[in-house]
Specification:
337 residues, mainly beta, four-stranded antiparallel beta sheet, globular
């Protein structure tokens, strides 16, 4: 009887460990990772990590099959990961081709790369898009131009009543390229922090010398409850957001990152949308992996935009990870409006 009781206690303890709260951290410096996706074996979104890298208590580790993030390698979750309560993700090393970097007549920089946009509604992937696109960013003015080169869109054939079905709508701020403030080295020797941007602290930069890159967590730019709209009975309410950027060619204190170091951007926001009777929880993600940076004169920029077609090199950015592939299963080509 005592043995049976002991086995019962051990079993309960094992279940508790397997269901405990999960924390997602950077494997290089143990910093928390915000905006990481916890995905089930069948591709459902179970939760997204907060600014402390923690998933909500509602997410049970035993249900999680993948942890995925734009700036890190995807990780499959096993029982050992759950027992530890901590999941470590390895940062990605993103490679970018830079053209005409020393062109003195350059007024614009073209950032070309793979764009990926997807949504989950109440945990089920309902929209996905991927392809090549480019941004033309002025080096002298606060101006940018977006161009969709070749993007394929998919959904589940449902009526689209949300406004997040576009591509390239995320805020675009190459943060460190736009600020003239020198970077400050902290006591740990590896982390650089953005002290101020337009008068306020917005986040931190984690320098990763082993990957020759850095990750900017600028979630301070986005506030919870960013959107609250009631239009003809359709309600949309923002509930949170996260914002990341990746730069390559690791810099030291006092140095600046430029557009030629820009390697990618990630934007995530959670909203509630629907009518008074039914509100859907919608998680919206957009990734942009830079594959090519080119400096252009104003004349070259105008000619490139007017061109009916663009020479698209084979993208060398990150392929779709397994967790997203599972979620995308069953989606159909979306009809353009």
């Amino acid at each position: 009887m005592k043995r049976l009781g002991l086995l019962t206690v051990i079993g309960l303890l094992a279940q508790f460990a397997f269901a405990q709260q999960m924390k997602i951290i950077n494997s290089i410096n143990d910093m928390p990772i915000a905006g990481a996706l916890a995905i089930s074996a069948d591709g459902r979104l179970l939760g997204v990590s907060n600014s402390e890298g923690v998933l909500s208590n509602e997410v049970k580790c035993g249900d999680v099959a993948y942890v995925s993030h734009f700036a890190f390698e995807e990780k499959k979750i096993d029982k050992n990961s759950c027992n530890a309560g901590v999941v470590k993700l390895q940062p990605l090393a993103l490679q970018v081709v830079v053209l005409n970097e020393k062109d003195k007549n350059a007024e614009y920089v073209r950032l070309r790369g793979r764009v990926r946009n997807f949504e989950y509604t109440d945990g089920e992937m309902t929209f996905y898009a991927e392809g090549m696109s480019e941004y033309y960013v002025s080096l002298k003015k606060k101006k940018r131009i977006y161009r969709d080169l070749s993007v394929e869109r998919y959904n589940r054939g449902r009526k689209e009543d949300l406004s997040y079905k576009g591509i390239g709508r995320m805020p675009f701020f190459p943060l460190l390229a736009q600020t003239s403030e020198p970077l400050t080295q902290l006591s740990d020797g590896n982390t650089m922090r953005i002290i101020r941007l337009r008068g306020k602290e917005v986040g931190s930069q984690q320098n990763l010398p082993a990957q020759n890159s850095c990750i900017v967590d600028a979630s301070g730019l986005l506030r919870p409850e960013v959107l609250n709209v009631n239009l003809f009975g359709l309600r949309t309410r923002g509930t949170g957001a996260a914002f990341y950027q990746v730069y390559n060619a690791c810099k030291t204190a006092g140095e600046k990152y430029g557009y030629d170091n820009f390697a990618g951007q990630y934007f995530y926001t959670a909203v509630q949308s629907g009518t008074k009777k039914k509100m859907d929880a919608v998680d919206v993600f957009e990734y942009f992996y830079v594959t090519e940076v080119e400096y252009l004169s104003k004349k070259e920029m105008k000619a490139a935009i007017k061109a009916k077609s663009a020479k698209i090199s084979s993208p060398t950015s990150q392929p779709m990870v397994e967790g997203l592939q599972k979620g995308k299963a069953g989606l159909k080509p979306a009809k353009r409006k």
